[in-house]
Structures are given as C-alpha cells and as structure tokens.
Amino acid sequence: MTISFKGAHFPRDVILHAVFFYLRYSVSYRDLEEILAERSTSVDHATLNRWIVKYAPLVADRARRKKQCCDRSWRMDETYVRVKGEWVYLYRAVDKHGKTLDFMLSKRRNKAAATKFFARALEVNRLPSKTVIDKSGANTAGIKAVNKMLKGFGCPIPIQMVRRKFPNNIIEQDHRFIKRRIRPMLGFKSFESASATLDGIEVSQMIRKGQFGLGFCPFKQFAELAI
Predict the structure, then answer these.
(1) pLDDT value for 183
(2) Which of 13, 60, 69, 154 supports an S-S bond with 199, CB 3.0-4.6 Å?
(3) What contacts 138, CB < 8 A, 6 or more positions away?
C-alpha cells in the first residue's frame, strides 16, 4: 500500500526530498530549514522533525521487505546510541558481504531484545545457514530461543551459531556510517525520534549499498519506496 500524504500541507516530493536529505547528509534541522528557504520553500524545523518521525519508519518498513535477497551467512551485533542522556541499543544484522539485513532500536540489551530482533529479521529474510555473533550471553540466548521456536514450527535444522569476535569486523565497520551520521546530532530527545531517525538512516545506507538495484539516483530510489 502506498504511503499516504493526505492532510500534508506540502507536496509529496518536497516532504520526501527533505526527509531523504536529512537522513543521508550531515545537516541539522535548522540547516535544512535554511537550505529549503533558499529554494523558496518555508518549512519550520519542528515540522521537519515531525516529517522524519512520521515518514521515515514507513519508508524503512517497505525497504526491509523490498530489498534484494541477501546471503544466508549473517553477522549480528549491537551498538550504543544516546537518548535523553542514556544509552540504548541499536541491533543490526548484515550478511557476509555487508548488505543490511535488518535493524531495531531497543531500550534493553538482554535475551528478550535479542530474541525479538532475530525473529523480526527472519520475517523479511531467508533462514540463515549460520549467524556470527560476539560472545554476548544475551545474543547467544536469543539465537537459542529462536532455534527452539523454529523447531516447534517443524524446522529440522537449527541456525548454526558462531561465537567469535574478529569475524564480526564486517558489521563493526558498518556501524561507522551510522555513527558518523548521528554524531552531529549530539543525542536524541526521545526514543521515538531516535528510532524513526535511525530507521531512515539505515534506508539511506541500504540505498548507498545498492540493495534496491542500480541505475537510479539515490533520491529516486528512496521516493519509489513510498509508492
């Protein structure tokens, strides 16, 4: 279903351009407000924030389901993000080639969060042959819980779990793009805003990696995800 822009006071393309520009490049809301004003579009920075919170998660959900198939060898890890002065956890998974599989912001780093993330990733990806993680007890428990659920559904072969540190360099390197984009933001004021913004940044990263095909400009790929 197409994302609805009903009730918006600006054209769809203006909204999507603003959202994509903020997610992809290191600009603040006030910077973007000024950039748009120079192009004869007057949008308050608070409105820009509302656009991100409303539309970025919707585009991200479609991106998760529309991306090209990834390899069945996964790398999973979590990184830290500051929200209202406290650390929360961005769970991320990529395949062995660095293609993004899924992402999820969580207030906790425990078995429940890891299980939820693995189950979420399985909704939109093929069953992995193996998953490489660090030596986190929570992630280990999460994979074991998912394997137990898969067995209950009649899956005879469990997901192979590899607990090592150095093979996860692929995803640890991939964290850098996310960190580089959010560093100028100096933290988020709410969990909802952080989750929405990070969802959108992940989509811009997936576009950069060519996960929706090549031949289109990045913005056009982003806009087509809203159709």
Answers:
(1) 87
(2) 60
(3) 109, 110, 111, 113, 114
Domain limits for position 34: 12-67+191-224
Residue 4 maps to a domain: no
36 with 104, same domain: the answer is no
Token pair for residue 101?
């599989």
Decide if 22 contacts 52 (C-beta within 8 A). Answer: yes
**Whether the Cβ atoms of residue 46 and residue 31 lie closer than 8 Å to each other:** no
Threshold 0.90, pTM exceeds? yes
Instruction: Name the amino acid, one letter, at 181.
Output: R
- How far lies 223's CA from each of 28, 72, 129, 137, 157, in Å? 21, 28, 33, 40, 39
User: Which CATH number characterizes residue 85's domain?
Assistant: 3.30.420.10
Model confidence at 167: pLDDT above 70: no
Q: What is the mean pLDDT of residues 94-100?
A: 96
